[in-house]
Amino acid sequence: MNEQGETLGADVHIKNKGSGLVFIISAPSGAGKTTLIRKVMEELPGLQFSVSYTTRPPRAGEEEGKDYHFVTPFLFRKMIEKGEFLEWAEVLGNYYGTRVPNLQELDSEERDLILDIDIQGAQKVLQQVDQAIAIFILPPSPEVLQERLVRRGLDAPEIIQRRLANAKKEMEVAQRYHYLILNEKLDEAIEVLKIIILAERCRKEKRPIFERKFREWEAYHGKNHC
Ligand code: 5GP
Question: Domains (ranges, CATH) in the chain?
Answer without folding.
Answer: 3-50+110-224 (3.40.50.300), 51-100 (3.30.63.10)
